[in-house]
Amino acid sequence: MCVLTGDSVVASDEALKAFNDLKLGKKYKFILYELNPSKTEIVVKEASDSADYDDFLAKLPENDALYAIYDFEYELPGEGKRSKIVFYAWSPDTAPIKSKMVYASSKDALRRSLNGIAADIQGTDFSEVSYDTILETVSRGTH
């Protein structure tokens, strides 16, 4: 169990283990994280091995914030397949203000705990997290 310091939010051991299972063990394709009910710890909401990006998008709530990690695979012409781990801070415009504020202020607690992230995405609507948008982000600087 993680120790709290003051009012800060911490990433649970389970959250960190799931990330390592995705990164090192390739056990998952994506992980959704949420704050526990007392807003003191970041926990795993769901982990999936579905390779369909639309399955991932379908899991993003229309009216609430969350964090997500996605093992994004893509192909560059003449260079073959690549894989980048992407961190999403999902905070749709329709989410409650308090939820957006809590998630924005606690993002660093999770983000700092995860090593090996290639890209950070701030999503407020589905166009910002579309496959093509993420592909453009992760493939920049790799040509």
UniProtKB/TrEMBL annotation:
Pfam families: Cofilin_ADF
GO BP: actin filament depolymerization
Tree of life domain: Eukaryota
SUPFAM superfamilies in alphabetical order: Actin depolymerizing proteins
Subcellular location: Nucleus matrix
A cellular-component GO term for this protein: actin cytoskeleton
Keywords: Actin-binding
Record domain ADF-H: where: 7-139
GO molecular function terms noted in the UniProt entry: actin binding
PANTHER family: COFILIN-RELATED (PTHR11913)
Family: Belongs to the actin-binding proteins ADF family.
Entry protein name: Cofilin
Organism from which the protein derives: Cyberlindnera jadinii (strain ATCC 18201 / CBS 1600 / BCRC 20928 / JCM 3617 / NBRC 0987 / NRRL Y-1542) (Torula yeast)
Lineage, uppermost ranks: Eukaryota, Fungi, Dikarya, Ascomycota, Saccharomycotina
Primary gene name: COF1
